[in-house]
Amino acid sequence: MKKIFALILTLAMVLSLTACGGGNSGSGGSGDGGATPPAGGSGDSKTYKVAMICDSSISDGGWGMACYNAMVDAAAKYGWDTEVSDSIAQSAYYESIVAFCDLGYDLIYAPGNQYTDAILQAAEEYPNIAFALLNGGADTPAKAANSNVTSLLPDSQQVGWIAGILAGLMTETGKVAFIGGMEIDTTKGKYAGFVESAEYVGQQEGKTVEALDVVYSGDFSASDKGIEFAKAMMDQGADVFFGDASAVDSGARQAIDEANAAAGSVKVYDIAQPGDFLGQNECIIGSQVTDNSGLVGLCMEAVENGTFGGETIFGTMQNGVLSCGKLSDLVPADVQEKYNSYISQVMDGTFMQ
Structure pTM? Predict the structure, then answer.
């Protein structure tokens, strides 16, 4: 039944790409093995193709948009063609992946740990296609039957630290909040890093900082849940937010902006990720930035060279994958100086030591 659905979806994609003038004469593919292995090397005249699947929208102003832009930026650098299927339901992960495999895409890019089962299933059936799983588990590549899966794993603890340091410095109420999309390992790691760094910085600054219990929306597209969560957490006194929930985060920022407008001044803040979203909402005071394009680019290079798969590529502040975005003028100059000092400690490995 799944294969039938996948074939129907493949035909729909073909028609869509034809109508839009999309698609290129890249490698062919079939359901019995996938794309022909790349010849490799920069002199290859082949046009490579990468496809992304995403359960959130690539216009969500958050995770989906940043991950899509990462693919596009990497593809521009390496001369690859791109395609995306976004806002897909969890029940359609596998079928969407298989549809792109049948269309002959060389690399399937899935930005989230929640796609792991679908990726592993498709990777077993299409041994000659490469699969890149952003925020995939460190042990996921070893589970792949054909060594054609790579996990791209930004350091979730450092992601949380970058946001938690700023939250600990900026909170006036002593209460900070975190909103998650799904209860997956990477999100839990970000929350843990956020909590420990906010509490630590608060202690260093002579105040007590408490993180409210994490809440999960169950998906990444329900902006209305973000509004609901943010209102409830503001009622509990939270004045600095951080999230890992894509469009749900956008809903939270809407609620925060509305609350600030009603109060007549900006007193509740949000820290964005994984792109530099300063200016997108008035409440955003800074961002944790992840250069996913660099990680995706490494996958493209490996596909071209015939060396893809079977590894986990980690991203940290030390290797330049993680960084801090610009700070808002709402962050006082002396606080900005302290923030940069704590970030330097993260860089040199002395933070919380």
Answer: 0.77
> 266 versus 36: which is more confidently predicted?
266
Query: 164: closest CA among 200, 216, 189, 135?
Result: 200
What span, in angstroms and rounded, lies between the C-alpha atoms of 225 and 216?
9
How is residue 187 written in tokens?
Answer: 């999100």
Q: pLDDT tens-digit profile of 102-137?
A: 999 999 999 999 999 999 999 999 999 999 999 999
Residue 78 — φ and ψ, nearest 5°? -100, -5
What is the average pLDDT score of the chain? 89
3-state SS assignment for residue 125: helix
Count of C-beta atoms within a 10 Å radius of residue 258:
14
Tokens found for residue 177: 């909040």
Tokens of residue 289, six digits: 């930035």
Sign of CA dihedral 304, 306, 310, 316: negative
| Helix H or strand E segment including 156 | helix 156-170
Distance between CA atoms of residues 91 and 111, nearest Å: 16
> Which residues make Cβ contacts (< 8 Å) with residue 168, sequence separation at least 6?
176, 197, 198, 199, 200, 201, 202, 205, 209
- Strand pairing report for 322-324 and 284-290: antiparallel
The b-or-e profile of 308-339 (16+ CB within 10 A means b, else e) is bbebbbebbbeeebbebbebbebbeeebbebb
For residue 203, which amino acid is it?
Q
Pairwise CA distance, residues 98 & 347, whole Å: 41
Q: Quote the DSSP letter at residue 24.
A: -
| Two structure tokens written together for 13 | 């994609």
Give the CA diameter of the chain.
Answer: 63
What does the DSSP assignment read for 291-341? -HHHHHHHHHHHHHHT---SEEEEE-TTTTSEEE-PPPTTS-HHHHHHHHH
H-assigned helices in 219-332:
223-235, 247-263, 292-305
